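Narrative progress, year one. The postdoctoral researcher (J.K.) led the effort to move from monomer predictions toward full complexes, under supervision of the PI. The following entry was the first complex the group processed end to end, covering 574 residues in total.
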Amino acid sequence: MRDTTVARVAIPARLASPRRVVRARGALLALCSLPMALFFLVPLAALLLRVSPADVLANLVDRQVAQAIQLSIGTTLITLALTVLAGTPVAYLLARRRFRGRVLLDTLLDLPMVLPPAVAGIALLITFGRRGLIGQGLDAAGIQLAFTPAAVILAQTFVAAPFYVKAAAAAFGTVDRELEQAAALDGAGALGVFRHITLPLTLPALFGGAVMTWARALGEFGATIIFAGNFPGRTQTMPLAIYLGFELDFSVALTLAIVLLVISFAVLLVVKGVLRQRIQSTVA
Amino acid sequence: MRRLRTSASLTVLAVLLSALLADCGGDATAGGGGAPSAARPVTLNVFAAASLKDAFTAIGDAFHSAHPNVTVTFNFAGSDTLAQQITQGGAPADIFASANTQQMDTVVRGGDIDGSRVKVFTHNRIEVIFPKSNPAHIQTLQDLARPGLKLVLAAPAVPAGQYARDFFTRASADAAFGPSYKDAVLKNVVSSETDVKAVLAKVALGEADAGIVYTTDTATKASDLGTLAIPDNLNTIAVYPIGVVKGSKQATTAQQFVDAVLAPDGQATLARFGFLPAGQGPQYTPLAGA
């Protein structure tokens, strides 16, 4: 115990550690990081090692696999567009206005990120299903959502949109209000200020949030299978095809898992590259 | 002092690593097997087909009353999922109860169950269900082919889903249905669910106009549902085989549970949930060479 006290006092005097010590600390830190890095790396590498590239290519031309990839990409892009359109005003409202219920709205948006996706699926089913709260009226008007691609998009949006809205709200909150006020004094309208000042300053963060939403939508499973069901070409997205492939044809499941892995990794990597460039050019 | 902290970190790392290694070692020696002493607490992991949920839960409770030291935990899912979990993932199952022979064959072929010791413990059959309000006005089996009807089935990999499709094939060969029956019905399928209970839930909720499940599934949900029987000559009598998994650490207790399922009490419980007796119908033939 006494030894510790002495050492604690001694540390400030030695803040400028010799390079050798810094390097040793770095090596130790790397060593301590190794278990977690391996924990993520090995299972993903196992996926890649399990099937030969020839098998992956052979499975890719399989109609059901191609349909799943097509459906996943189509629905997630629509989900993304809807999220940006409907989510940007919400994010702006949360960042710029103080109003009654603001905390409630903010917490409401946290919920889909915390709840199990199965809860989202059941909630959507009893809302938009044939006998649901809103679905009843829609059904009377001849619109049925359950078991259609529209249901897939609703499920994805419900679960994934908050990622964009939260990121966008945080970004809008960081913009220097004096810049906006200056632009307004120079005669820019509210929309002009948003377009020429707010948007360019927050674009990297908005882009990052949008990508998180897209990635989450791409992986959506629980809400989709409950609300949209599972039918090839209509509601069977890649995660559903992977789950059913696990039971029916393991190599199909592996192929789709690898496709999902490669797409996600590539997109996230590219986005990180783009973001870093933007940040560097903003700084410079 | 710095060296002291370094070595502390290293110790933590070493403990973590040795914990990891110990876990690997545990798995490798799991094949041992052995009889538990009467007082030792034992947890029995039973992997059972989703359709068995209610009946097996009741049998499990009775077994726990008779053997208080044994806690029976169930993993209910589609038989195909369970077979994959046992053969691919080496899941810690003590018992596998399948809703068909193919999935039991998969596990026997994978070397995880001794085929010669597998027993058939019950039989089951499928029927058509529809919401009580009957939005599609289903009166006969032929109505399933009516365009625009929303039909939900279990996926083809799930036994109940396969039997439903077998029914359409047989019906198509029957003059009362006509050769186009199968294609017309399959056009109405809006979803292939991952297990038979999901089919039941979606029909009971009124989201689908009709579904095909086991007669045993409707035994507990009769108030929300209408049913339509599928005649014997078009139906598939589902065979339910059960077996003790080779790697089980409590093989003796596991065998006792299997015996309890086959005993008159267990059979009576199964009958209460709509299952057919073990002796009535086809039996399990072990794979050639397994």
